[in-house]
């Protein structure tokens, strides 16, 4: 039979007859063997096998696509009928097959380098044709013909079967000749003719020379899959036996046998593994080439007893949809916005595998992947895991973008770098110049859970970006508590630039609807954070079959029946399935047959297996057969949690009770229950393994097992620095509280152990953990501990209350403190507790209780506290204090630091009482306390509290007449920062200096950045109250000087969002007041207002502090809205409430009050009061501008210009307007620059002498984005211009169409349109 040939067009290939090519390959192989190049023999064999398999794939595709009737049964098709195309250029020997002939087919191997040492990649088939041929033999059609006989008429079915059988037989013959280089022995297939059924020849087929298909192709013996007895003789067809003896891979032998078995299809004697069509054959050959090491080559392991199932550990099966969802979500994050992705599913469903599939994408896009796994045993340390995860990022950044990140960290954190270093020690890798701060927790220095959240938020904002997004993967968050999840919510809901992709996995069958996970999802949704949730169920049968095929290295069609059984028993749970297969292997129900070189099994026995649907049963059964040492090791590690450091096992091995754990570790590693990473961390391979190991301990013995384990570690590690292992020891031994309390000496020792663990957790900012350990320590103390263990009791009591305070559990902290204060023996022992108590009360807004506490302690310290103090006395005391300071001067400031601890403590209480008295006492009392504190320091020397004492004093007593001296004192106080460690006082220092003093002499803009730092430092260090004071002054100065109202509104909204965590009602109320003002100035609140409004309370109540802000902002709003009468009313109310010290709001109100009085005077309203108001406003601006031209000169010049317009001093008024505009422009006060432009423009417009000059002033106003009221005046001017243009028209100008009829009117017509156009632009 003749075949058409189409040669490749390329000139770099040469065609060789296939038989000649096989001869040359055999010669090469023989030459290598003769030279005894043993190292090359195996490689040469593998290369030759891949080449031959490549050719076989091409031939199979040819046969499958051959036209109906083209292949007759009597045609002798051998390899002599084929040629191959071989590359002329040097190449990898297994990659030089470029094509096969005939039938227009080229089989090409991918030209990439081999990956992971594998030879062979994806084989692609390109079909070309010189003459059109109809391909009618499709794989799906043949399969349908075989399996659905009823769909075809009788003879059509038989014809399709016979033709497909012929193709399979021909391909089997070619396979044999291709791999053996021998002719196919037809007589080797002869069997008893009576035993062979016949197939009636189709009428469509022409007459055959032979009787029928089955008489020519018969099998010697059918195999029964799973029959282990007959499996000892794997291949009984003579030609297959011959192939096996020649060393042909078992996969090729099996394929050839299954092809021959198809010839007897329908007679009841063929194997279930027989092929159904040549299309299935092509799929199998393609699989051999896709992964030859797994499917094509034989396993060379000679020890069949130690043969392992070859799982693809890193392959994710059956999760294509979920993989796409998580990849798309991360891609959205890489564009600059944080997002959350939750994965629910039962244990073993592949949740972690799904997340790990994304790691490559994260790395490719320049991102960082950090991970922490929660478990049931680590619930006592909920926050430390999240902190440690972020600590990993620093090490990842070191090798990528360290200089840029280090610079940004310095800029963003500034004075807070030491706090960040304490929270994340690995920051020192990025900033080597930093020295690890002392971790001793003193009063007022401990951060709390909120400050940890804020620090981590700032850190993520720095290290994450669209170029370098951070993926945080928290596994098993069903074990996390609300503290850890609060951190996640804070970071994800941030609106100022963080770029984090959070992935949380949880067991949805182990959580209730009220779990914190669902609360987190709801809060994220409310915060407009895009959230995706997926649920993983079991794999479907097809994916499970693929997974089993990969593990057994067998064709998927052969594994199909086994996978169906396993699917029914495991419900598609991947981990359960793998463990079940391991169980079958361990019981010899799944065996590797060395003769067949494949895995074999008995389906009936496996189907009859009665197993539980719980994988723990399988694992526990397996573990029960392990040695005692291995079981002990697994029990120990299960008590520790999901991972353990190898050093802990080393500690345990030193004790007699656990001496065998070292040997057990080796056994557990070999058996695959645990793995060890490069850092010596031991981990269970899966949660279920840990659970099964923990179940080896009887429930009744678990507490005692934990206790003995902890006690063994405690006895070995007592007195040693074991680092974080102390948490492990304390957690284990605390299970045996009932046994500890029986031994008084032991209970004291364990209490000290827990106190050390709690102290270490406090130093690491894990306050919930610290509180847990410290409470455990308190519970272990004997009843007489205050009498017999006073020092321990005092220290433990203070630390516990401090931890409770850091956890924001103020009631518990106060109770513990008061109990300690009752038992303290002297005032010195009480002072730290009283100071902490005052901070706890202050955090709750109990200012009266703070005042009473501090006044009582100051009295105990020898200070006199009057019941009341008059303004007259406070004025005299102020003068005395200022005089004392001027007499001592620089000499006192240059003095040495005093060692007087009592002075330090006394000033601390004065600092606290000053702040409290601002809210509950008169101004004279506040002045008294500040003066007393300064005098005390002047008399007794300098200490760390002196700078804050001086700043509090100057912020309270500064007035216009003493401003210069007070500013000098404040500057000197700030200079003391370089001599003393005052980082913990930064929020208070910045608030008092930049918020209350420096504005008189320095630009508002200069104070904004420092006040922001004070705000961030306060929230980061746990001093949220003072940080929020800095925040309010920040927004106040921003409103005075911001170039953009929209950016100001955005900043306020960010702070409002942040305050949801801190729940400060007062601060939130003030921010809402600011927001309403900004919203009104932008668009009268039409599009920028929000539903939430500020609550002011009783405006007639003298103790109602927000009413001052209400009157101040109402005055500003009314002025810009043009409500002159109301502006005057609210301005007077505001000025009457301004404190004696004077604040910037007082001067701003006086400025607008003066402008409003000028407007009233123009309208002849309240003439006398208006004149007086103008005088007061100008006098105030003159005083303020004397010290700070930057902040107030433009305001003074504008008031003067407006006053001069009333007295008809035209040229002087113009000069003042110009000076005001220039001064405002120089200072960056864009709104006031626009206001001055408007006033000047309106002045010229009203004079009606020079509209061109008026227009020039209007054009000097800032862009529309920052314009407020003056754009309305410009609009009015344009209408005025339009009106004048109409008045210039002829009598016909009322009718604009008539106006266009005369040439003269055209000019006026278009001039009018110009002004109308200008109006429309506005």
Automatic annotation (TrEMBL):
It holds the Pfam family AAA_16. It comes from the Eukaryota. InterPro entries: AAA_16 (IPR041664), Hybrid_Histidine_Kinase (IPR053159), P-loop_NTPase (IPR027417). Residues 315-493 form the Orc1-like AAA ATPase domain. This is AAA ATPase. It comes from Skeletonema marinoi. The lineage of its organism: Eukaryota, Sar, Stramenopiles, Ochrophyta, Bacillariophyta.
